[in-house]
Amino acid sequence: MFAPIAGGDPIAIEEGDASQRNGAFSPDGRWLAYEELSPNGQGEVSMRALSGQGGRRQVSADSGSQPQLAR
Fold first, then answer.
1. Could you count the other beta carbons within 10 Å of the beta carbon of residue 20?
2. What are the sequence ranges of the domains in the chain?
3. How far does the chain reach from its first CA to its final CA, in angstroms?
């Protein structure tokens, strides 16, 4: 969940569990990158558009953690 910068109620981006963590917003505010743990406990980095369109995309190839997004 995240709270919009302009105020208002928190918005659920993805239903999930505690295996999703370390979220980072893109500089343009359109994407959220985050770490999620696979069933074997390995971290992977995924991204999701904040518009709600398109679903989750895994962007790490062979593990990843603490995503940071640049311009």
1. 16
2. 20-58
3. 23
